Amino acid sequence: MDKKIIVITGGSSGIGLQTVRQLAAKEKNHVISFSRNEEKMRRALKETGKKDNIAYFGGDITNEDDCLKFAAYIEARHGKIDGLVNNAGILANGGIEMTDYETWKHTIEVNLNGVYLLTRTLLPLLKKARGASIVNVSSVAAFKPGRSIAYSVSKAGLDMLTGFLAGDLAAYNIRVNSVNPALVRTPLHLENKIFENETEYEELLKTSAEKYPLKRIGQPEDIANLIEFLLSGKSSWITGSIMKIDGGVTVSNDLIPPKE
Ligand SMILES: NC(=O)c1ccc[n+]([C@@H]2O[C@H](COP(=O)([O-])OP(=O)(O)OC[C@H]3O[C@@H](n4cnc5c(N)ncnc54)[C@H](OP(=O)(O)O)[C@@H]3O)[C@@H](O)[C@H]2O)c1
After folding, report:
1. Closest CA to 91 of 192, 190, 182
2. What is the pLDDT of residue 1?
3. Which residues make Cβ contacts (< 8 Å) with residue 102, sequence separation at least 6?
4. How far lies 51's CA from each of 54, 199, 234, in Å?
5. What does the domain layout of the chain look like in residue ranges?
6. Could you tell me the CATH superfamily of domain 4-244?
7. Which of 116, 162, 188 most suits a substitution to test ligand 1, by most atoms within 8 Å of the C-beta?
8. 111 C-alpha to center of ligand 1: Å?
9. Given 54, 165, 227, 248, which is the most exposed site by the fewest CB atoms within 10 A?
10. pLDDT tens by residue, 133-171
């Protein structure tokens, strides 16, 4: 059987790892994760259980040489890419006074420039699949200022990249969409030192859930399910969409009291 070749950046943790797991559960898929820390990736995949249809490649999406090597690796083994999930990302904290120029540049470099670089490098392989799908993992912070000026701006830029690429690449039958989650429980916040410690983070998760109309924050599975749909033929007429997935938090109306 001709396997579907699916690349997921940041497949070693959080949303990316769950997406790797779900997609690899289907034998028709061959899933390749691309992220920097190979040891972290090896550990994560060990927990997933050994599967012949999962592979990983160590590299940084902001490094042109790593992206070229990754493209050569896929070209040699598979000759095409059916799905690309641009999921790798980092988080920062604070407005203009808290965000020094280095942090600003680094956040834009990973969350926006890295996506552009890797997508452009892999484009010849995506074209070869004749019907590929690209999913960019953005955030609701793209619409509304959140915790970080650099993060919000990087994700707003990513959404425009999604729209532009959708129009640009439709001629090759390549679809491009964004998924924009609100708060999801993953290592992201602690990994990027947004909180002093785990207790503070747990407190945020608890108080946040109450603000969500659906009374819970997101789990990686929620996002992986939407990504899986956007990679599949079931979404074949969807391109250029920016899809909120947020438990209703962006439409919550505090003025209406709850029903008795
Ligand atoms: N969790 C949330 O609340 C939330 C909400 C909205 C949007 N998102 C978005 O969802 C995506 C996934 O986040 P997550 O919460 O799952 O975070 P996470 O658990 O911290 O995972 C991030 C992944 O990205 C990889 N990565 C980071 N920088 C990289 C680089 N330069 N090159 C290659 N890989 C890199 C990391 O692996 P290495 O460190 O080994 O490279 C890791 O596998 C991000 O784009 C994030 O902005 C998350």
Report:
1. 192
2. 66
3. none
4. 6, 35, 26
5. 4-244
6. NAD(P)-binding Rossmann-like Domain (3.40.50.720)
7. 188
8. 9
9. 248
10. 999 999 999 999 988 999 999 999 999 999 999 999 999
